[in-house]
Design goal:
Order of helices and strands of chain A: EHEHEHEHHEEHEHEHEEHHEEHEHEHEH
Helix content of chain A: 25-40%
CATH class of chain B: Alpha Beta
CATH architecture of the largest domain in chain A: 3-Layer(aba) Sandwich
Shape of chain A: globular
Strand order of the largest sheet of chain B: 2-1-3-4-8-7-10-9
Oligomer: heterodimer
Helix content of chain B: 25-40%
Radius of gyration of chain B: 20 Å
CATH topology of chain B: Rossmann fold
Number of helices of chain A: 14
Largest interface: A-B, 44 and 44 residues
Structural class of chain B: alpha/beta
Largest sheet of chain B: 8 strands, mixed
Distance between the termini of chain A: 51 Å
CATH superfamily of the largest domain in chain A: Thiamin diphosphate (ThDP)-binding fold, Pyr/PP domains
Number of domains of chain A: 2
Radius of gyration of chain A: 21 Å
Structural class of chain A: alpha/beta
Order of helices and strands of chain B: HHEHEHEHHEEEHEHEHHEEH
Chain lengths: ~375, ~300
C-alpha cells in the first residue's frame, strides 16, 4: 500500500542522516518511539519528538534503554509501527529485548548509529564494530535482518525498507548507521507519499475462535497478527511456546519453535540478500564493504582502475543475512578480496567463511574514530593485484 | 487411602465457581505451590474484574518474570509475559499505543522493585495510567529463595544464609513519594478488601499501586521455620492493623512484626497522556489533534 501522506515530508532537503532516518521512519508509518538519548543517534529521536505531535502518534523519553526497547514492543502489540534508536552502549543494554522481539515475533526496527567502542569508547567518532553484536549479542539462536546505508538519502530509503522487512518477516530489523552517515549532511529527496510503497502489518482476517497467535503453515512461516483489545485474548510470552502462545517447556516445543523462527530467515535468505556489484565480472580484485566505508572504498577503486587494475566493488546493502553464495561465486574468478571495515575484523570473518579458501581474503581493519584513508585501501588493492 | 478418594463423587468445580470464566482453563493446573498466596490474589483480581464493569476484551495484563509473573498466562485476557523487571515499560507502550485499553501490571516484589525498580518509580512519577499489582512474598520464589529488596531484616535466605542484614523497601512509601494516585496494601487474609482495592484500582485513572502480602511457604516460611501457608495467613490476621489514610512513611514492615494495611493514598493528578494532550493543545494549537480521541478515550 501507499504511505500515509501525514508522515511524508515530500521535497528536496539538505539534511543529515539522522534526520533523514527519522523522516524515513515517519514515511514508513512509524507512530511510536520510546527513546533514550545517546550520541550520535539522538538527533533521530529529537526530530521525532518535534514532528510526531502534528503527524499523530507518541514519543516518550524513557528512563533507560531497557525501558525504551521494551516500551516499543508493548506499543507494537497495541497496534503501532515502532522504532528503537540507540548507539553501542545502549545497544548492549537492549540485547535481552532483541531476543524478546525475536522470540515473540514483534515487528520493530532497531537503529544503531555506531560509534567507537567497547564501553563508552568514542561517542563522537564512527565505527562499524557492532556488526557481530547484532548477529550474536542476545542469548540463544536468532536471526536478524540488517541494512547498512552509506548516505543520508539511503538512511531515508533503507529505513522505509527496514520497516517493510520487519512487517513482512516479523523479526527485528536493524538499520546499521554510523556516526559519519548520521551526521553527514547531503541532498535527500523524499518522494510523494503515493510513490512510497509501505507494507502493512500482517493483520489476521480470522475470527477469535479460529485464530492462533503463533499459528503458521509450512508454506507461510510468518504468523498473522492482532492487537490487544481486538477480542482475541492472546497470550504472548518470551518462554518457549506453542501455536497458542502458551508456554511449552519441552525439547520438542523448543525444537519446533527454534527451527521455525530461525528458518523463516535462513531458508529465505536468497530473497533477502542485497549485494550491489560494480565491475565484479572479470575483476582480479574485489573490494567487499558496507556503510560509510563503501564510499571511501569507491574512491580507492576508481584510483586503482585509473592505474589499470581490474577491480570490482561488492557492497553489502544488506549485511545480514549474508550473501555467502554469491561471494563464493565471485571468489572463483577473482584472485583476491579486500575487506575494509571500521572494526578490528568482523565481516571479514564472514567473507573468509563464505569464500572458503577460493580466493585470498585481506582484511583492512580500522579501530574507528574516523574513516579509512583512501590510500590505505588503494595500496591494499594494488598489493592484492600483484 | 487412594481407594477412598476414588469412591468420592467427582467434584464439580465448573458450575459454581465465579472465577473460572476469567481464567484460561486450558492452562490449569497452575505452577504455584500448595499454601502459596498468589492464587488467592488472582481470585481477588478475577472478582474485581467481574465487579468493575469493564469490557474484558479491553483489559490487558502484563507480567514480568517470577512466580507472580506467571499470572498473565492464566488469565483469559490479552496477556503478556515479558522480561524480568520490564513489565511496566511494556505496559506503558501498550497503553499509549492503544489508549482505550485498561492495562494491568501483575508481578512480584523482586521483579517490580529490584530489577524493575527504576521503571516503577518513573511510571509513578509520570502518572502513567496503569494499575500495578505487586504480590510481595518477601523472596525470590522462582529461583529458590534468594534475598529480595523486600525481605525484612533478620530472616535467612539462600543468599543471606546468616540472616538478612539489609533494610527492606517500604513499597507504599516509595509509590506514594513517586506520585502514584492510588496506593493500598492488603494481605491474602484480607480477600474482600484486596478485591475491593483491585476494583477501585481498575476504575481509577492514573498510576495505581496495590501491594498484596502473600506467603511463600516453600522457601521463605520453611527456611525460617514459620510454618506453612496457613500459619502465615494466621500471622497476617493477628498482626494486621487497618489504617486507611495512614502516612506511608509509617507503614514499613519488620520481620513477623505488625502490618499496617489499608488504602493509604487516593488522589487526582493528570495522567501522562492527559498532560501531553492538554500541553500540546495549548502550545501547538490547531496543528495538534488530541491523541487518543480516535480510540474513544474521553
Amino acid at each position: 500500500m501507499q504511505a500515509d501522506p501525514r508522515g511524508v515530508l515530500t521535497g528536496v532537503h539538505f539534511i543529515d542522516g539522522d534526520h533523514a532516518a527519522c523522516e524515513g521512519a515517519l514515511a514508513a508509518g512509524c507512530r511510536f518511539v520510546a527513546g533514550y538519548p545517546i550520541t550520535p543517534s539522538t538527533e533521530i529521536v529529537e526530530r521525532f519528538a518535534a514532528r510526531i505531535p502534528q503527524v499523530g502518534g507518541i514519543f516518550i523519553q524513557m528512563e533507560d534503554e531497557l525501558a525504551a526497547s521494551m516500551a516499543i514492543q508493548g506499543a507494537v502489540w497495541g497496534g503501532k509501527k515502532v522504532m528503537n534508536v540507540t548507539s553501542g552502549p545502549g545497544l548492549s543494554l537492549m540485547m535481552e529485548h532483541l531476543g524478546y522481539a525475536f522470540m515473540t515475533e514483534t515487528p520493530c526496527v532497531w537503529v544503531d548509529v555506531q560509534r567507537g567502542g567497547p564501553s563508552t569508547g568514542l561517542p563522537t567518532g564512527p565505527a562499524q564494530a557492532d556488526m557481530m553484536q547484532i548477529k550474536w549479542g542476545s542469548h540463544g539462536d536468532f536471526e536478524v535482518i540488517a541494512l547498512a546505508p552509506n548516505s543520508p538519502q539511503e538512511c531515508f530509503d533503507l529505513m522505509v525498507r527496514a520497516f517493510n522487512l520487519t512487517e513482512t518477516w516479523r523479526v527485528p530489523v536493524f538499520l546499521m548507521m554510523d556516526e559519519v552517515v548520521g551526521h553527514m549532511t547531503e541532498r535527500v529527496v523524499i518522494p510523494p507519499a503515493s510513490a512510497i510503497e509501505v507494507v502493512e502489518r500482517k493483520w489476521t482476517a480470522k475470527q477469535p475462535g479460529d485464530y492462533q497467535v503463533y499459528g503458521t503453515t509450512p508454506e507461510d512461516p510468518v504468523p498473522e497478527m492482532i492487537k490487544a483489545g481486538d477480542g482475541y485474548r492472546v497470550h504472548v510470552t518470551g518462554l518457549t511456546h506453542d501455536e497458542k502462545g502458551y508456554p511449552d517447556l519441552t525439547p520438542a516445543a523448543q525444537h519446533k519453535l527454534g527451527r521455525r523462527l530461525v528458518d523463516k530467515i535462513r531458508l529465505n535468505a536468497s530473497q533477502l540478500v542485497d549485494l550491489r556489484e560494480d565491475g565484479v565480472e572479470g575483476a582480479d580484485v574485489v573490494v567487499v564493504s558496507f556503510g560509510i566505508t563503501s564510499r571511501v572504498a569507491m574512491a580507492a577503486i576508481e584510483a586503482a582502475r585509473a592505474r589499470g587494475v581490474k577491480v570490482g566493488a561488492a557492497r553489502l546493502v544488506i549485511t545480514w543475512p549474508f550473501p555467502a553464495g554469491r561471494l563464493r561465486e565471485i571468489a572463483r574468478t577473482a584472485k583476491a578480496i579486500v575487506v575494509p571495515e571500521l572494526n578490528l575484523g568482523q565481516m571479514v570473518l564472514e567473507v573468509q567463511r563464505a569464500v572458503a579458501g577460493c580466493a585470498k581474503v585481506t582484511g583492512l581493519p580500522h579501530a574507528g574514530g574516523t574513516v579509512h584513508e583512501v590510500d590505505t585501501i588503494l595500496n591494499a588493492i594494488l598489493e592484492a593485484a600483484r | 487411602m487412594s481407594q477412598d478418594l476414588d469412591t468420592l463423587p467427582e467434584a464439580d468445580f465448573g458450575m459454581e465457581n465465579a472465577v473460572l470464566p476469567f481464567l484460561r482453563q486450558d492452562r490449569i493446573p497452575h505452577i504455584w505451590c500448595p499454601g502459596c498466596g498468589i492464587g488467592t490474589t488472582v481470585n481477588c483480581f478475577c472478582r474485581a474484574l467481574g465487579e468493575s464493569g469493564l469490557d474484558l476484551d479491553q483489559v490487558a495484563i502484563v507480567s514480568g518474570i517470577g512466580c507472580t509473573g506467571r499470572t498473565a498466562g492464566y488469565l483469559n485476557l490479552d496477556s503478556f509475559h515479558t522480561t524480568h523487571g520490564r513489565a511496566i515499560p511494556f505496559a506503558t507502550g501498550l497503553k499509549l499505543a492503544n489508549p482505550k485499553l485498561k492495562v494491568v501490571v501483575y508481578s512480584g516484589d523482586g521483579d517490580l522493585s529490584a530489577i524493575g525498580g527504576n521503571h516503577l518509580m518513573h511510571a509513578a512519577r509520570r502518572n502513567m495510567d496503569l494499575m500495578v499489582v505487586c504480590v510481595n512474598n518477601f523472596t525470590y520464589g522462582m529461583t529458590g529463595g534468594q534475598v529480595a529488596p523486600t525481605t525484612p531484616t533478620g530472616p535467612t535466605q539462600t543468599t543471606m544464609p546468616y540472616g538478612n542484614f539489609e533494610s527492606p523497601f517500604n513499597l507504599p512509601f516509595l509509590a506514594d513519594a513517586c506520585g502514584a494516585v492510588y496506593v493500598a496494601r492488603w494481605t491474602v487474609y484480607h480477600v474482600r478488601q484486596l478485591a475491593k482495592a483491585m476494583r477501585e484500582g481498575l476504575q481509577k485513572k492514573g498510576f495505581v499501586f496495590i501491594e498484596a502480602l502473600s506467603p511463600c511457604p516453600t522457601l521463605y516460611s520453611r527456611r525460617n521455620r514459620l510454618g506453612d501457608g496457613v500459619d502465615q495467613v494466621k500471622y497476617y490476621k493477628e498482626r494486621s492493623q487497618v489504617r486507611n489514610g495512614a502516612d506511608t512513611k509509617e507503614v514499613g514492615l519488620t520481620y513477623q512484626g505488625d502490618i499496617i494495611v489499608g488504602k493509604f493514598v487516593d488522589r487526582e493528578r493528570p495522567t501522562w497522556m492527559d498532560a501531553m494532550n492538554s500541553h500540546f493543545n495549548k502550545v501547538l494549537g490547531d496543528s495538534f489533534q488530541t491523541y487518543g480521541a480516535d480510540h474513544g478515550q474521553d
